[in-house]
Write a structure and sequence with these properties.
It is a single chain. With 236 residues, the chain is mainly β. The chain has one domain: Thrombin, subunit H (Beta Barrel). Helix content is 8%, strand content 51%. The protein has four helices and 15 strands. The strands form three sheets. The chain has a seven-stranded antiparallel sheet with strand order 5-4-1-2-3-7-6. The chain has a six-stranded antiparallel beta barrel with strand order 8-9-10-15-12-11. A hairpin with a 6-residue loop joins strand 6 and strand 7. It is globular, with a radius of gyration of 21 Å.
Amino acid sequence: MINIHSIGESIFPIVDVSPGPPGEIEKIDLLGTGVYIGSGLVLTCAHVLRSAKSYPASICGTVYSQGKERLCGLTDIKYHEHVDLALARVSESCSNLYQPLALDLREEKVLGDDYTNYSFPEAFNSDFKIFLRPRFLKGYLVRTAFDLDTPAQHYLEVSFSSVPGMSGSPILNSLNEIVGIVYQNFESRRLVDEECVQESIDGEKEPEIMERTYRVSEFAKAIDLSKYPRFLDELK
């Protein structure tokens, strides 16, 4: 049974905050999603934190404490050398607000395995308050492969799509353990129909054209953490 409440205490949006007058927020930009894995560490995608406009040591990559009016700065950011992964640290006072999720680094995976995802594809501020719209998805493992553009990046392909704001969010197994980190959306096109069409204009036949109909499917791609069992040591 999926416990949405407990998952919500472990996963949160990562945002870039532009401060306004003292004690107020002028603007908030959603960067992606992060997951707390314990010991003060937040796991997300490297491109999520690198997209921040502010300097990381100040207000870059802050996290919104689920259900609490509080922003926690991320510091000591480490980027993986080859894979789109990053670790950041939150203060002890902030880390006490979250419950860590365990990692599943076992390589055994079966196509069709049930997976879930919890993320924050939308976050905005109005009247100096932050509003979040979490997204919970259920799907299954479609395939395992590696990214041709980044051969070191083994990935899982799952049956639901990824939208902006989901980068850095975890793919969870039935035990709510993290098996992957979403980093990209993948679009698959399959030809389902093809026919020649000839039109007549002012009584004259135009050259035949080929009309094709495609079925488009979208899948989320997530970094397969089991392929990088030492990634935490490499990032620390």
